[in-house]
């Protein structure tokens, strides 16, 4: 089947709907998010405009999830090339908070729809954990970190990061960044 290319107007409308979906999910959570709520936020006259671009809520959630994941990964990876494991770990933490600072609704929506997204995220939770545990192992081998179980420490670090995301609306992110970096530094030792 030959698919026609989407016009600039269609691409813009689709992007508008995705952004409205992100804001709606961040505000209302997944279960309360509907095409009606998204249409209202986007200023659309009808939910039919959403249905034109997305077959159902699941397809829209999958597109939202993939969009946020792609932007988040690019943002963090761009800041990760550091000379030592300790510096790379700190860069990872600071990049996560920086993305959250600039894109709070995106991160909140991402965590809220993660379990509902049908698209594979490439096992992002697992890949985050595996990559972080490997970074911690490398730091231990280089003598930058104390002895600990890298897999368990990776779980703790990611749990702290996710906790900051979920509570970020009530927290000063500058303080969060400073305390998250300090807590991880203390936990990993040197």
UniProtKB/TrEMBL annotation:
Keywords: DNA-binding, Transcription, Transcription regulation. The keyword Transcription regulation applies. Pfam families: TetR_N. InterPro entries: Homeodomain-like_sf (IPR009057), HTH-type_TetR-like_transc_reg (IPR050109), HTH_TetR (IPR001647), Tet_transcr_reg_TetR-rel_C_sf (IPR036271). The keyword Acyltransferase does not apply. Gene3D superfamilies: Tetracycline Repressor, domain 2 (1.10.357.10). Residues 17-62 form the HTH tetR-type domain. SUPFAM superfamilies: Homeodomain-like (SSF46689), Tetracyclin repressor-like, C-terminal domain (SSF48498). This is TetR family transcriptional regulator. It comes from Lentzea flava. The lineage of its organism: Bacteria, Bacillati, Actinomycetota, Actinomycetes, Pseudonocardiales.
């Amino acid at each position: 089947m030959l698919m026609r290319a989407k016009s600039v107007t269609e691409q813009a409308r689709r992007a508008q709907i995705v952004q409205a979906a992100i804001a709606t999910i961040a505000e209302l959570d997944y279960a309360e998010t509907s095409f009606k709520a998204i249409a209202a936020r986007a200023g659309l006259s009808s939910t039919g405009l959403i249905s034109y671009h997305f077959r159902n809520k699941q397809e829209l959630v999958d597109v939202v999830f993939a969009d946020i994941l792609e932007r988040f990964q690019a943002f963090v990876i761009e800041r990760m090339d550091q000379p030592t494991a300790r510096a790379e770990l700190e860069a990872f933490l600071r990049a996560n908070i920086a993305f959250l600072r600039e894109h709070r609704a995106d991160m909140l929506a991402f965590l809220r729809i993660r379990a509902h997204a049908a698209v594979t995220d490439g096992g992002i939770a697992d890949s985050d954990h595996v990559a972080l545990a490997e970074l911690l192992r490398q730091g231990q081998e280089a003598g930058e970190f104390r002895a600990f179980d890298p897999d368990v420490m990776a779980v703790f670090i990611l749990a702290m990061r996710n906790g900051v995301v979920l509570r970020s609306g009530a927290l000063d992110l500058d303080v969060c960044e400073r305390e998250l970096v300090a807590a991880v530094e203390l936990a990993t030792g040197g």
